[in-house]
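Continuing the batch. This is chain 6 of the set; chains 1 through 5 are on the previous pages. Same settings as before, nothing changed between runs. Recording input and output for traceability.
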Amino acid sequence: MKKPEFVLAMAIAAVLAGCSLAPAYKPPATPAATAYNDVGPWIAAQPGDRLPRENWWHLYADAQLDQLQAKLLANNADLAAALAHYTQAQAFSAQAHSQLFPQIGAGAVGERQRESDNSPPARNPSAPADYNAYTVGLQASYEVDVWGRVRNTVEAGRDNALAAQADLASAQLSLQAQLADSYMQLRGLDQQIALLQQTMQAYAKALTLTQTLHAGGIVSGLDVSRAQTQLSDARSQWSQTVAQRELVQDAIAVLVGESASTFSLPAQAAAIAVPAVPLDVPSTLLQRRPDVAAAERRVAAANAGIGIARAAWFPSLTLNAQGGFQSTGWANLLTAPNRIWALGPALAYDVFDGGYRKATIAAAKAKTDEAGANYRSVVLGAFQQVQDNLALLDHLGAASADQKDASDAAQHALDLSMTQYKHGAVSYLDVVQAQTVALQEQRGLLQLDTQRLRASVQLIRALGGGWSVDQLARR
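Output for chain 6:
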């Protein structure tokens, strides 16, 4: 090829290299309300309306929870696996990015060869049939990205890496929320265990009272039996609650990467206040949920895959160059007479493929449709999770206030019945009934408070924790 023609061909290739056969990308449209329902005055947070960017669990102001979260980040096996997956995705993205550059190789060959006496064209009879061949040289090749195949491959790899990064953030948020949720359960069980211990002490005193009155002939043995039944039932409830605590503690041990056999947490019966969770408008949820970001990047990667599939319908253009030295001996191999070189483009095109390329494009489009549907599903699920936990917090807050009134009234009734029993005004059956109701109402109040705390954790998780789409490392 003459030099002007070669330059013209390269100029045309450079212009065509700006082409891309991938459709113009737009994130799938999803419905989004202008505001959440069940937003009560308890939601307001000052200052600002966004969650902390880091360590969102500090909203609960619990030092033990802070320590457990630090252990989770350092030791959790599932989080380590998610990190390794992200590292793989980064490596795959780097592999795709390498296709943007020429591929250069070097080699050296030393061979003893024999040429056939009848090889076409006919061998010169005076030339030896056996000879040595020594070659050293460099080879370079570069695919001119005329139809955007390479660029779309790089784009798809980058988007998949970003999706994996968001997956890592989603896994971390999920594990952190799971730990916080388990911790709230543990603290709630600690409060119930403390209540049952106090109840057992009160029931033991009541049993002693009935035994004394029975010994004096004032009450019947039926009162003693009823008092003993109440005490034994309270002890059974205490044992069952302690067993539940052991299971929750073991689950926390796994989350923080420790053996359940050696892990233990001291009991803490102090109440944790339900925090005011910062809340933004629904549209910002798409920027704050890592699973939403991961689903959206996979749509973008699938869209780039359409461009890759379409590029197969057009010829591929590769520029090849090689040069070096070749001789029948090592001596004086690297001298001018032994130079060899080759330079030129290569054009390749599949004339017939039995419908393979057409099927590949159809599959790429279907994959994009699938990714788009998954994205919409994740978004709608995210809105539902926020709305559900908002409703839980709203209604559980009202229920807790009513339950507190019921618990106070039941305790007052118990105090009155015990006073009246001591004066012989009522039977012990009235005391037993009052004790049963008072314990039920007190445990119900503690359970409601635990449910509210767990709902607040799940609301923070549904809002994306302290994560933001700005944290995706864009190049």
